[in-house]
C-alpha cells in the first residue's frame, strides 16, 4: 500500500490518506517489541486503536497526527517508558506523520487473562515437557564451591551470545547466586496476572529464589515447599519460546535434585567437578541420582584446572585428573577443562560474566563448552522413539 509523502498536499479530513497512514503506522508498530514478552506490541493486544487525524483543521495543508492507544499489561510495568518511547519513534518514522500522541493506560483484566492464556498456547501448564522443543540442561555437582554456578551463568550467557534463546532457573535454593553473577541482584520479576515475567540479563531470562526472599534472608524449607517452588518456576514463569532452559542445581543429591528429576525426567545433565581426584566420588554420586530419574548425563566439566603462569609453567592448585576420572566413571566425555582464572572470579563478583571477554582462557573454555553443547543438539534425550514394541 502506498504511503503518501510528507510533503504531499492533503485535504483536511481526507479519510483515504489518513486511512493509508493509519495502516502504515500499524505496520511500523509491528517493529515495537515488548522487552519482557518478546513479541510485537501489535500481537499482544497492546494497541487497541490507531487513528490519524488532521491536527490543524481548516489549514490548507494540515499536519497529520497519529493518535495511538497503548495498553500496558500491568500497572507500573517496568518497561513502560521504553515501550512508549519505541511506539512514538515507530509512529514518527512513518512518512507523512508529523505528530504523535500516545494515550498510555493499562489493559483490563479480561484482556490480560486472555493474552496470557494465548501466550501459553493452550499448552499444558508445564511447558517443558518431553514433547517440547526446548532442551533442558541441569548443571550439577557433587559438592559446593566447585564453581558450578559460575560455570552455569557463563554458559547461559555464552549460549545466548551464540543466538540461542536461553532461560536460566536458579534452582540452587539454599545457595542462590545467579542474580549476583549476572549483575541483577535486587531485580524483581513482574507479575502479569498469574504469570511471572523473569528479569533478563545478558540476553538470558533468569528466575531465582533470591528474587522472592528479603535480602540477607535464608531459605530453610523442606521437601514439599522446595518441590512447589521448583514446579512454580517451571510452570508460572513465562519464558516464552526457548531453545534451552538451564538449571543451576544445588550441589549434592537432595530434595531439589529429586523434584527436578520427577518434573524433568528428559533433562540432560552436566556434572561440574574440580581436578581433585578425591572429588570424583561425590561428583559421580550426583550423576547417579540424575540417572535414576531417567535423565541423561551428557558430560563433565572440570573447573579450576591449571593456571598458566607468566613463566609458561602451569600451577595445578587443585591437582589434576579429577575431570577425566569422573568422566571415565560415568562413561561420558569430559566436555571442558576450565582453568583457574582471576578474571572469571572477578567477573562473578562484579556481575559481568567473563565469557564475553575474548582474552580470558576460562572464558574461551566456556565458549567452547557452549559450542559443544549447542552442536550436540537435543539428540534422543527424552524424545519418543516412535517404535512400537511387538
Ligand atoms: N575457574 C575459576 N577460577 C577462579 N575462581 C573460580 C573459578 N570457578 C569458580 N571460582 C570462584 O569460586 C567460588 C565458588 O564458585 P561458585 O559459587 O560458582 O561455586 P558453586 O559450586 O556454585 O558453589 P555452591 O553450589 O556452593 O553455590 C566463587 O568465588 C567463584 O568466583
UniProtKB/TrEMBL annotation:
In Gene Ontology terms, what is one molecular function of this protein?
Answer: metal ion binding
Q: Where is the signal peptide?
A: none
- From the record, what ranges are coiled-coil? none
Q: Is-annotated flag, keyword Iron-sulfur? A: yes
Q: Which InterPro entries match?
A: FSCA_dom_sf, MIP18-like, Mrp/NBP35_ATP-bd, NUBPL-like, P-loop_NTPase, YlxH/NBP35
Residues annotated for ATP binding in this entry: 142-149
Keyword entries, A-Z: ATP-binding, Hydrolase, Iron, Iron-sulfur, Metal-binding, Nucleotide-binding
State the function annotated in the UniProt record: Binds and transfers iron-sulfur (Fe-S) clusters to target apoproteins. Can hydrolyze ATP.
Family designation: Belongs to the Mrp/NBP35 ATP-binding proteins family.
How does the annotation summarize its subunit structure? Homodimer.
Protein name listed in UniProt: Iron-sulfur cluster carrier protein
